[in-house]
Design a protein that fits this description.
Blueprint: H1 2-20, E1 40-44, H2 52-64, E2 69-72, H3 77-80, H4 90-101, E3 105-109, H5 117-122, H6 149-166, E4 172-176, H7 188-202, H8 205-211, H9 236-263, E5 270-272, E6 274-275, H10 284-288, E7 295-298, H11 307-321, E8 325-330, H12 348-358, E9 361-366, H13 393-411, E10 420-423, H14 426-434, H15 443-458, E11 461-464, E12 475-478, H16 486-497, E13 501-504, H17 527-530, E14 532-539, E15 548-552, E16 555-559, E17 562-568, E18 574-579, E19 590-597, E20 600-605, H18 611-625, E21 638-645, E22 648-655, E23 661-671, E24 676-683, E25 688-693
Parallel strand pairs: 1-2, 1-9, 2-3, 3-4, 4-5, 6-7, 7-8, 8-9, 10-11, 10-12, 12-13, 13-20
Antiparallel strand pairs: 14-17, 15-16, 15-18, 18-19, 19-20, 21-22, 22-25, 23-24, 23-25
The protein binds alpha-D-galactopyranose (2 copies).
């Protein structure tokens, strides 16, 4: 940083000479960037809301808390371009330079989630059409139509201006495009684009009609222009393809900006967008493929951190690009949008930060720095108050800042490596959500019911799409992979034939890529390999007496929500669990079956079982496939997160149990935060340890 500070006067002189000569100051040689920290602490900062005279005080407080980056400008379009083609970048220049003086790097957001009033007034066609057919208006955000060519032209314009100005700025480390993509538009213009998109995908209407079985309810199309937009009810093929169109359109919306940023910036500057964990408005695999970095906004909202559901969301995000990711936003204590905006306990914000790093986050950033004096989110949690002085959680965040700096060298170059993969697809989650059959059948809850015990046993799990190369995994589990294409099935079949263990959960392989039923019944194209199938599925009510007893190698339990009656067709397919007496249909029928195929194995689980039984199931899966926990046993409630790389093995431990826990380490390790060698560690509730193996 010294070098930048020293260069400032020189830069100023150069700027002066270049301007006098009418040469763009952008051509000047730039100083080398300061070394970046391996693990970043950050915050969302809105300097446009405050006088410049205040910025230094803010940045000093950030620096004192160990904050190493600010994300700015992601809603600042009206401050950057107050009138069409009139640009005010001075304040952005100053904010970046002032941050640099405090060793704080900058992530620039393109401001396209909040178009200015002049823009939508002049170009009303850029406003989206809402589900009720009305045009959205100015006053909130995300009022734009993501498919509108004029809006895209304007977005590209502002992104290009910013990239040309800051693409070589040494203190700018990356870009966030837009903010939390979510809004869709349902006007005739979008409908026409959707119809063209379908034409490109299906070629002929005959093909589309056949694959969607449109003879049903006289849905047959005789002209592409007849095809409607449906989001909730209707033909399953239509619904699924609308979501795919939405995803492709977000991808092209993003690429429109990404291309001009990339063309005008140093390759060291990453490009990301902030996603939303389990949010399923679009296919995140489609949208993330063009990015350099996946990031997400991790909010608890009401209540406390659920390390399983949240941990799985982290692993999901890590799976988008199959590498470390960033937490671009998280709550400093509480939010403003939950039914009850409860606060995280003292210590929980820190525990959550380390939980995130354990799952592969290389940055944790708090939204937001300071309370807005006005605006919808006045009451949201912050690090400093409206008066500009720290609120109570500031000191906890400052502790995280110190710890990130201290643990940085140990964590540099490390990432998460798992022996177990859970397969996840948006097609399947959407398909289940449109036809849950039992309202309690939440696809994310189903995934977590497998994830939780598998994580406990293996201490690390990847969540990846079914097209991923699977050879590196000892165990692959597909809970609820309801939609499965031929190509995906072939990937899974090859995995088993090459010696892998594939476990299928309830509803897997029910439908094809048009969201139509596979005629083989579940698990569709995997039925032959399994040597068995689902004869019938049953929704199970949540009433006393309606649950279904299940017993076998994982003990005695009951099936709730869902129970599938299985049968075997191959002589070597074995029954592991059997239903007891309930509705008559299931009595005595197989609930879990498995078959060895060469060196590989395939298992089908038809019953939705409780946590204790799923833990036994996970242990069985691990044993039969050679999965081992790297760290060894830890007390219940303690999460262990292994990260390795660069010749280092680091284990992060967090105790989510209310009672203090003592953990015996598998060997002597370095306690990174306390600089000592230890072989046991005691952790209070929310206690954290960062341990480096020797
Ligand atoms: C009604 C309709 C049928 C069918 C059944 C399904 O009776 O007339 O077409 O939709 O419901 O339960
Ligand atoms: C989202 C948005 C932020 C802010 C926070 C509040 O994550 O991206 O702009 O509104 O929610 O929790």
């Amino acid at each position: 940083m010294q070098s930048i500070r020293k260069l400032l006067p020189l830069a100023f002189v150069t700027l002066f000479i270049f301007s006098a000569l009418g040469i763009s100051a952008l051509a000047q040689p730039q100083p080398q960037p300061e070394t970046q920290p391996p693990i970043y602490l950050g915050t969302a900062w809105y300097p446009e809301q405050w006088p410049e005279s205040r910025w230094d005080a803010d940045l000093r407080l950030m620096q004192q808390a160990g904050i190493r980056f600010v994300r700015i400008t992601e809603f600042a379009w009206s401050s950057i371009e107050p009138e069409e083609a009139v640009y005010k970048f001075d304040w952005v220049d100053h904010a970046i330079d002032d941050a640099a003086k405090h060793h704080i790097f900058v992530v620039l957001g393109t401001p396209t989630a909040a178009p200015p009033a002049w823009l939508t007034q002049k170009y009303p066609e850029t406003l989206r059409i809402m589900e009720d057919g009305r045009r959205d208006e100015h006053g909130n955000r995300e009022q734009f139509n993501w498919a509108n060519p004029k809006y895209r032209e304007l977005c590209r314009g502002i992104a290009e201006k910013m990239a040309k100005r800051y693409g070589h700025n040494p203190n700018v480390i990356g870009w966030q495009i837009d903010n939390e993509y979510a809004a869709e538009s349902y006007g005739l213009d979008v409908q026409k684009q959707f119809q063209d998109w379908l034409k490109a995908r299906y070629g002929t209407l005959d093909n589309l009609n056949e694959r969607w079985t449109t003879a049903y309810w006289s849905e047959t199309y005789s002209d592409w222009s007849q095809i409607p937009i449906e989001e909730k009810y209707g033909n399953p093929g239509l619904l699924l393809n609308w979501k795919r169109f939405v995803s492709d359109t977000y991808r092209s919306y993003q690429k429109n900006q990404l291309d001009v940023i990339r063309a005008n910036s140093d390759r060291r500057q990453f490009i990301t967008t902030n996603m939303m964990g389990w949010f399923d408005g679009y296919d995140h695999y489609t949208v993330s493929q063009d990015l350099d970095l996946a990031s997400w906004d991790d909010y608890v909202g009401r209540g406390h951190l659920d390390p399983n559901r949240n941990g799985a969301a982290n692993d999901l995000t890590r799976g988008f690009l199959r590498k470390n990711f960033w937490i671009m936003e998280t709550q400093p204590g509480f939010v403003n949008w939950a039914p009850v905006n409860t606060v995280l306990d003292k210590g929980e914000v820190r525990a959550m930060a380390w939980h995130n790093v354990g799952h592969g986050a290389d940055a944790v950033s708090y939204w937001q720095w300071r309370s807005d004096l006005n605006g919808q989110e006045e009451l949201h949690g912050t690090l400093i108050g409206a008066d500009g002085t720290p609120v109570p959680v500031y000191s906890e965040v400052a502790q995280i800042g110190k710890e990130f700096a201290k643990a940085g060298p140990a964590l540099a170059g490390t990432s998460v490596h798992s022996q177990v993969a859970i397969l996840h697809s948006y097609d399947s989650r959407w398909a289940i959500n449109w036809q849950r059959h039992n309202q309690a059948f939440d696809p994310v809850t189903q995934i977590v019911s497998y994830y939780k015990p598998l994580r406990e046993v293996a201490q690390s799990v990847d969540i990846v799409p079914p097209t991923t190369p699977l050879d590196g995994y000892k165990l692959v589990v597909a809970p609820g992979l309801e939609v499965i294409s031929k190509a995906e099935a072939e990937n899974l079949i090859a995995y088993v034939k090459n010696g892998g263990h594939l476990v299928l959960g309830q509803r897997t392989g029910m439908k094809n890529e048009d969201n139509g039923l596979w005629p083989e019944r579940e698990p569709g194209p995997l039925t032959e390999l399994l040597g068995g199938r689902v004869d019938q599925f049953y929704a199970i009510d949540d009433k006393p007496g309606d649950t279904v007893p299940v017993s076998g190698i994982w003990g005695n339990t009951t099936s709730k929500i869902w129970a599938e009656q299985l049968s075997t067709s191959a002589p070597d397919t074995k029954v592991l669990m059997t239903y007891g007496k309930s509705n008559g249909w299931l009595d005595g029928k197989p609930a879990v079956i498995t078959r060895k195929v060469g060196k590989g194995q395939i298992t089908y689980i038809g019953a939705w079982m409780d946590d204790a039984t799923m833990l036994k199931a996970a242990k069985w899966m691990a044993e039969t496939s050679g999965v081992t926990a790297e760290f060894g046993p830890v007390p219940t409630g303690v999460d262990v997160y292994p990260r390795e790389g660069d010749g280092k093995k680091v284990f992060i431990l967090v105790n989510f149990d209310k009672t203090p826990q003592t953990v015996t380490l598998p060997s002597m390790m370095r306690d990174v935060l306390n600089d000592k060698e230890i072989h046991t560690v005691s952790l209070n509730h929310y206690g954290v340890a960062v341990l480096q193996a020797k």
